[in-house]
Design a protein that fits this description.
The chain is of the alpha/beta class and 291 residues long. It is 44% helix and 23% strand. It folds into 2 domains: 3-33 and 76-290, 3-Layer(aba) Sandwich (Rossmann fold); 38-73, no CATH class.
């Protein structure tokens, strides 16, 4: 992609996702992701109807009539986007690759965050840590985040979620709302996922493409693993081959679902062939009810 094309794509994503944030997710984001507590704002005189337990007894004793402590919600949060930019993300059987989908999702989440004065940071990873952008506020910063997700050229091709989650815990010691955007084509990261889930509010956005689940009957096809380079020729006319492919894909999806449940990590399944706002809205409504 040429720089001009990248800027044009970023602008298109901003326009589209800003509309989604304004019309759909803005209020829900605020109600779902709240500050961690309350901070002291001021002391004022007691008024009928105020809670007795809010009385500041030291100030009351000093002035001879009751005063109460007034608090306000600690609203500011840090939102971290942990984004898989490995080679498998370049795949997309329709109009959008998984990487392009991740950029739009990142934009929706980032613009929702800055509307609430929250900070947004990003970690891009493959089988190594590719780039870290420290959390900041503001539209200009969010546009940089979207540009990095969309146009970054990684040096690695594989996926190492263990390294990504370990790095998250090192650079973000305080609790953060953490969205992990990946197709999760990796294994052995359960321990780090559980640890990250205890420290942060982790939400896994599982990116999937329909051609990763169902093989069409089109004859002999050469399949290539984008991350490892392994190749195989399969006869897609053979119903047993197609059935095995589908069964393995289904088993992997179920394994991931169980792993996220056991780690107490929320999961949102996002597909390249379905509007991503539907599962996002469903998730936000579920979190509202649970809260």
């Amino acid at each position: 992609m040429l720089p001009r094309e990248i800027l044009k794509k970023v602008r298109q994503i901003e326009i589209r996702t800003n509309r989604e944030v304004t019309d759909v997710l803005g209020g829900q984001y605020h109600s779902v992701f709240k500050g961690r507590g309350m901070e002291f704002e001021e002391v004022r005189e007691y008024m009928p109807g105020d809670e007795v337990r809010s009385i500041d007894w030291n100030v009351t004793a000093r002035f001879g009539h009751p005063f109460i402590k007034k608090f306000k919600e600690e609203r500011e949060l840090t939102v971290m986007l942990v984004v898989d930019v490995s080679a498998s993300g370049q795949f997309g059987s329709g109009q959008q690759s998984k990487n392009e989908l991740a950029a739009e999702l990142g934009a929706v989440l980032a613009f929702s965050a800055i509307r609430n004065n929250d900070k947004v940071g990003v970690i891009l990873f493959t089988d190594r840590i590719e780039k870290y952008v420290a959390p900041k506020k503001g539209r200009r910063h969010v546009l940089r985040v979207v540009r990095e997700i969309l146009a970054f050229q990684p040096t690695g091709t594989g996926t190492n979620l263990t390294k990504a989650l370990d790095y998250l815990n090192r650079v973000q010691p305080k609790r953060a709302v953490t969205f992990v955007l990946s197709d999760f084509q990796d294994a052995g990261f359960e321990k780090k996922l559980r640890l990250a889930g205890r420290r942060h509010d982790v939400i896994a956005l599982s990116l999937r493409d329909p051609r990763e689940e169902i093989l069409p009957a089109v004859g002999l096809v050469e399949l290539r693993d984008a991350e490892t380079g392994a190749q195989a020729v399969v006869d897609t006319f053979d119903p047993r081959v197609r059935a095995t492919f589908t069964d393995r894909a289904k088993a992997r999806v179920e394994m991931l679902q169980e792993m996220f449940r056991s780690a107490s990590v929320d999961q949102i399944e996002i597909r390249t062939d379905i509007d991503y706002m539907r599962p996002l809205v469903k998730f936000f409504r579920m979190r509202e009810r649970r809260a």
